[in-house]
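Hey, I'm writing a tutorial for new members on how sequence and structure tokens pair up, and I'd like a real worked example in the thread rather than a made-up one. If someone can provide the structure for the chain below, I'll link this post from the tutorial.
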Amino acid sequence: MPDVIFNGPEGRLEGRYHHSTEANAPLALILHPHPQFGGTMNNKVVFNLFTNFKQRGFSVLRFNFRGVGRSQGDFDQGIGELSDAAAALDWMQTNNPNASSVWVAGFSFGAWIGMQLLMRRPEIEGFISAAPPANMYDFSFLAPCPSSGIIINGLKDAQVPYKDVLKLVEKLQAQKGITIHHTEIAKADHFFQETIPDLMEAVDDYLNMRLAPSPAE
């Protein structure tokens, strides 16, 4: 997959991009964990999410937030990182003007950024949030959440207690007009260190359901 460099709000951003061979292919943007705690676009969860969408025929981009790898700028407490994600989506849409749909997937800090991006970009029709840090960041901006998606967390997550994720899930599931799925992985910690196959099975099951052709097609 080619390395790409594109313009962000604070300078160049570094990414890895797969361009689908299918006409008008859907887009997926993958967002990595916290930059100050070792998060990069090469994180295993991010890489596996990228690969899953690639295998499904999506054009997919994962990239380093500002200050990570070759991306320019400095960490900005999530404000600038949200702008980076918006710039990344702009870049994808410029190169894929007739894309059939847009998805966003994020892990931990990236899940928080991804769900904020939903509020900015109504064209995003689905999301995957792995281990959203519901105890660390305010998710009240999801009022209402504009898109259906899935939240996946581990029951052995020492960083984000499952009760905090469950509270977020229940709040979103009470909203009308969207459907929020929720999968808990019994043996998973925050980083899914030994349970990435279980995580990806949950992602597969959800995407198989959401992307299945309708009976009329």
